[in-house]
Amino acid sequence: MITLHDFESLVKTRRSVRDFKPDPIPDELLMRLLDITHWAPSGYNLQPTHCIIVDDPDHKKRLHQACMGQRQILQAPVVVVFTGDRRVYQNNFERVVEQEKNQGAMNEQYEKIYRKFVKLAFSPDPAGLGWAWKSSLLPIVNQFKPIPQVPVVHKRYWLAKQVMLNAMVFMLAAHAAGLATVPMEGFAEKAVKQVLHIPASHIVPLLIPVGYAEQKEIKKTRLPLDGFIHRNGW
User: Fold this and answer.
1) What is the DSSP string of 187-226?
2) Neighbours of 45 (CB within 10 A)
3) Could you tell me the pTM of the whole model?
4) In this predicted structure, what is the pLDDT of residue 123?
5) Residue, of 117 and 40, whose pLDDT is higher
6) Which of 59, 159, 182, 194 has the fewest CB neighbours in a 10 Å radius?
7) Is 32 helix (H, G, I), strand (E, B) or coil?
8) Cα dist from 113 to 116, 152, 192, whole Å
9) Ranges of H-type helices in the chain
10) What are the beta bridge partners of residue 82?
11) Which comes out higher in pLDDT, residue 215 or 212?
């Protein structure tokens, strides 16, 4: 069983690395890491995150240009591109329901509630009135009654959160396997999508080069915890 001490050590010793050895990552290990990543928490269990493995030298060269020439794209043996599916409700909802019913994780009563709630959260026109004007009224209404953020209105924001949950699991799993990673947000999303033929329905919040780190001393620091903890309010 993993102890809190083990997990604390894993988190506190993970570093972002930008210099990698050319040593390849065994494909079996990479797929195991991505399988672990797939078990990250997922809103409504819809699992919108996709991962593109980029290990072909030609693709990496073009990806390198889309990432403003950052060296880690070429140095790392693999770059994992994380995407979020805007059409996740249409693509995954029924599959998720069927799987959970088959595995005994969803009874008839829960299915009714789940169907109603998720449809409301993702349908562009749940009440026949459209969300366009409703989204403009949300800040006003929210002053009088708490309203949760609706994925269909805040789709990119919602997807980015889902992708980041997967990405953090991937980086921790890679560290546990003796690999180094670096999360990258500095890239031209449109260019990345063109290089890898990513569907227009997907967003690309993050790229993560992964490989074996060059042996360099990298210090990791954090500001004092007491400046970031607030109890029962700010």
Assistant:
1) S-HHHHHHHHT--TTEEEEEEEEEEPBPS---------GG
2) 16
3) 0.89
4) 78
5) 40
6) 194
7) helix
8) 5, 18, 39
9) 4-13, 27-37, 57-66, 72-75, 88-102, 108-122, 132-141, 155-176, 189-196
10) 51, 206
11) 212
> Structure tokens of 2?
């993993």
Q: What does DSSP assign to residue 26?
A: P
Q: Cβ of 172: how many Cβ atoms within 10 Å?
A: 18
Which pLDDT tens digit goes with each residue over 44-69?
999 999 999 999 999 999 999 999 99
Angle at 214 (CA atoms; ends 210, 218), nearest 5 degrees: 95
In angstroms and rounded to an integer, the radius of gyration of the C-alpha atoms of the chain is 21
DSSP reduced 3-state for 52: strand
Residue type, 47: Q
The amino acid that residue 161 corresponds to is K
Amino acid at 55: D
Lookup result for tokens 């969300």? 131
11, 172 Cβ separation under 8 angstroms: yes
Residue 74 burial by Cβ neighbours in a 10 Å radius (0-12, 13-18, 19+)? middle
Task: Judge whether residue 132 has pLDDT over 80.
Answer: no
CB-based contact 77:22 (threshold 8 Å): yes
